[in-house]
């Protein structure tokens, strides 16, 4: 059987499986069941049931992708748990950040472990080189393999053999996996007590708050952060969703709700043939109606990030700075398969900003089309691809530097290497200036000074 015919057969098989899940029958499902039996009985090298189902689902989703839906996907059993962990913002683990660095690659624990985590209690230090995980040497392992070895059920033991920075003999650090919460709200720099510094040194009236994704805890995290900052005298906010690929729709609505008056439109979703499914409005007067806000976006800000930026921009509640966003104006729903051990992530609707524009960027959309969220002219900062890479390297390095919580002094820097496309080492400029952030801060300062 040719590859093309086999792919077609797998697509029909997947359709049959979905028909059965819905309780329906069709002649095609009978044909596919017969073909499935035929493959099992007669194929020279019969594939496993798992391989058939995975291939069928991937084939069917590929049809959607070919029609222009780039965001629907099949999430198989191996990826399902990590995917749901990310959405729930928690998993069973030890509370460390890891990087592969050097040639040959070494596994480093970078930054400080999460306060109170198994790793912190066991004595893990910044820049520890992990030599072995349980009985598995780390040499030659890929990042996905490392993650699968480190994560596991809460309560299960794990032993890391690590070489502390500056020492010559590795030590074994036994620990027990615990529930690790994954934060989605970051500040400007990480402090030695595990907290983030949000207020800017040059003007403590302004806070820099970064949202890295929109998960189940994002709204509560942001609410707690803003409550703490206002008690410290913060009067203005840079809400940074650069590099944020999105996440849960309800999280984007909840974040927007904090800054809007009651009844202000947030987003509208439409299904097939443009039929309105839901219209979301602010549930009540948000607690930060008077706070000046700039939302920073860039070309990797997508989906839920764009909902927040577009909503606050259209409602006249915030200015938008940075670069034009990605342009993902569709909503995906998760359909559990196989008793929740795998999922179909399916595009079911589009979302529309308060101005009535759908910001989704089609594959052939010209620059003149209204896709994405464009920054306000006075806060727009152009950036080349090379400049974007410089920003990413600088931001990653800054996030892994540990600053003293009392003095602000640098306590440790990450021993990671950055390389360009040709594999050449690239130095990170310690004096790098984040132009988009600087412009946003200048604007907010002008607003605060004008109201003084």
Automatic annotation (TrEMBL):
Native source species: Posidoniimonas polymericola
Lineage start: Bacteria, Pseudomonadati, Planctomycetota, Planctomycetia, Pirellulales
Assigned keywords, A-Z: Hydrolase, Protease, Serine protease, Signal
Keyword Amino-acid biosynthesis found: no
Family to which the UniProt record says this protein belongs: Belongs to the peptidase S41A family.
Signal peptide region: 1-21
Gene Ontology molecular function terms on file: serine-type endopeptidase activity
Record flagged with keyword Cell division: no
An individual GO BP term: proteolysis
Cross-referenced Gene3D superfamilies: 2-enoyl-CoA Hydratase, Chain A, domain 1 (3.90.226.10), 2.30.42.10, 3.30.750.44
GO cellular component: outer membrane-bounded periplasmic space
Gene (UniProt): ctpB
EC number: 3.4.21.102
InterPro entries, sorted: ClpP/crotonase-like_dom_sf, PDZ, PDZ_6, PDZ_sf, Peptidase_S41A, Tail-specific_protease
PROSITE patterns in UniProt: PDZ (PS50106)
Protein name, as recorded: Carboxy-terminal processing protease CtpB
Enzyme class: hydrolase
Residue ranges constituting the PDZ domain according to the UniProt record: 83-151
SUPFAM superfamilies: ClpP/crotonase (SSF52096), PDZ domain-like (SSF50156)
